[in-house]
Amino acid sequence: MHAYTELNNSTEMVETFDNTFPAPSNLQINQDNVHTFSLVWDDNSEGENGFTIERKIDNGDYLQIGTNTSNDTIFVDDINSENQFEIVYYKITAFYQTSFSDSLAGNYSIEFPAPTNLTYNQLTIISIELTWDDNSINEDGFKIDKKVGSNNWQEEFAIISENTEEWTDTNAEINEDIQYRVYAYSGSNQSDSIETGVIDNTFPAPENLEFSIENISYPTVDIHLEWDYAASGIEGFKVLKNGILLSNIILPEVTEWIDVSLNVGDIVSYQVLAFYQSYNSAYSNEVICGVAPEGMIFVQGGTFEMGDHYNEGNSDELPIHEVTLDDFFIGEFEVTQAEFVAIYGSNPGSGYGDGDDYPVYNVTWNEAATYCNLKSQQEGLTPCYNLSSWSCDYEANGYRLPTEAEWEYAARGGLNWEDNYRFSGISTVLNYVAWYATNSGSQSHEVGTKADNQLDIHDMSGNVWEWCNDWYSSETINPPSYYQTCYDQGTVNNPTGPVSGNDRVARGGGWYSYDSECRVAVRFHSAPNITNHNIGFRLVRTH
After folding, report:
1. Distance, CA of 291 to CA of 220 (rounded, Å)
2. Residue 415 DSSP SS3
3. pLDDT band at 478 (very low <50, low <70, confident <90, very high)
4. pLDDT tens track for 19-43
5. pLDDT of res. 1
6. 242 pLDDT more than 70
């Protein structure tokens, strides 16, 4: 372009215009859900007729999938693919009539995130609840596969709706290993799955079975059982008594049961199971309850190590040897002066603690055995002793003196013997459990005024020595001592001591004993016809 006049031409001026068709820019691709994508871009041209949108999936070819009108820079692509894919590619091109801009290209890596944080909760014995986090957007739903034991996976065991984060299997197989896996799906597309570990769907047993003795009306009592149960959905409980499953059905919400009118001397074992239809749980822990005669304590049998655990006593307390005992009953207290007089008619001792509730003392072993027979006869029981030979019938249901092993086992706390106390019920502060030389004032004291041991038995350390049924045998006798003989035999069942001897055993220490003599392992002995103002006794029954 230039200006001119008739006289002369002006200088020529040239202006250049860029007539390039500008391409769109700034393409943004968002995944709305597992198969829908939103595209947004900037329009850099003016007067275009519109935009073409092309798409390519993975390694396929570009295909035009839509056209937008002029100035419309948003496009939603709903991919209806029967196959899973990983990357989607797009091209956006502006056009005017038959002219096209350069294309704006972009791609998006497909995200179909799996659920996470899959957990389970065994609601009942047949109900297992699954929960998870939903990480996908607008999936069609979730599929759940299930595996029972060694069987193959049951695919699509359950199909549930979108945006769900929990599901309950209400027909879980009892006493089987079960596993689940969960994945999201959309059409034929699906996310990766997430699996539970193996769920041990064992029918849980009742726990913490305990008993208490109630409604004591000798010669009968009631046994009250209580237990814990964490699961639900059962039909009830049943009780196993002495190995026999009772027909009684206890309602599922009731975790207690009372066995009424048991007789004194009965020893009963109990266990409890839960049931559902034809399925039974495992049994609870076993409790063994002895209906102790009045004034006695039930001692559940067991195996313990008898002898001097601290290696601080006399040689006749060794070697330590293993002993197994059956259940028995033992007096809660030493026999008192009032009890002895009521049966025997006279009190053999005085001057070292006098009164109804003081322990009897100055009593020979023979008198103690005679007392046992008299008390048995008075209560209609079979006496244990032959008063001519002084032999003992351990099968009789009457009263007798404890064997040395029974005495030590009870003093050690029975099944609690591994507490390994030096004294009965304690290891250090003897004053807490015993009357002995340091605190007795040179006399015995009323029974039960010191603390008891683990079995609620009093005065097994101190107050008065207590006669045992056994003859005494020491390491100086040839052949070897009784303890050595027991040790050589391995575990000894219900030992009753040597078959004969000169002295009978006494245990526990007394009011004038030093602390070392009140240990549970200490053995004293005396002739059975000799009295001592520091020796008394307590009773035992085994039937």
Report:
1. 8
2. helix
3. low
4. 578 999 999 999 877 778 899 999 9
5. 47
6. yes
At residue 216, does pLDDT exceed 90? Answer: no
Half-sphere exposure (Cβ direction) of 122: Cα atoms closer than 13 Å: 22
Structure tokens at 448: 């039960």
d(CA 508, CA 471): 16
Q: Tell me the average pLDDT of the chain.
A: 92
Using CA atoms, how far apart are residues 352 and 511, in angstroms rounded to an integer?
9
pLDDT digits (tens, 9 = 90+) for 440-468: 999 999 999 999 999 999 999 999 999 99
Nearest to 494 by CA among 376, 427, 370, 409: 409
Whether 270 contacts 287, CB under 8 Å: yes
Q: Which amino acid is at 388?
A: S
- Amino acid at the residue 59: N
Distances (CA, A) of 28 to 67, 102, 212, 503: 17, 17, 75, 105
Whether 8 shows a pLDDT value over 70: the answer reads no
Closest CA to 328 of 457, 463, 464, 498: 457
Residue 279 identity (one-letter amino acid): Y
Compute the chain's Rg from CA coordinates: 45
| Domains delineated in the chain | 25-109 (2.60.40.10), 116-201 (2.60.40.10), 207-291 (2.60.40.10), 297-542 (3.90.1580.10)
Nearest to 111 by CA among 29, 194, 191: 191
Which residue, among 541, 520, 489, 522, has the nearest Cα to 324 in the 3D structure? 489
Residues in the chain: 543
CB count in 10 Å sphere of residue 169:
21
Helices (H) and strands (E) in the chain, counts: 4, 34
How sure is the predictor about 11, in pLDDT bands with cuts at 50, 70 and 90? low
pLDDT at 108: 87
CA nearest to 496, candidates 394, 400, 408, 390: 394
Task: Give the Cα separation of 494 and 507 in Å (integer).
Answer: 18
* pLDDT of 306 above 60: yes
Amino acid (1-letter code) at residue 86: E
CB atoms within 10 A of CB 294: 10
- How are beta strands 465-471 and 535-536 bridged, if at all? parallel
By the 10 Å C-beta count (0-12 exposed, 13-18 middle, 19+ buried), 78 is classed as: exposed
Q: N- to C-terminal Cα distance for the chain?
A: 135
Give the Cα separation of 297 and 331 in Å (integer): 6
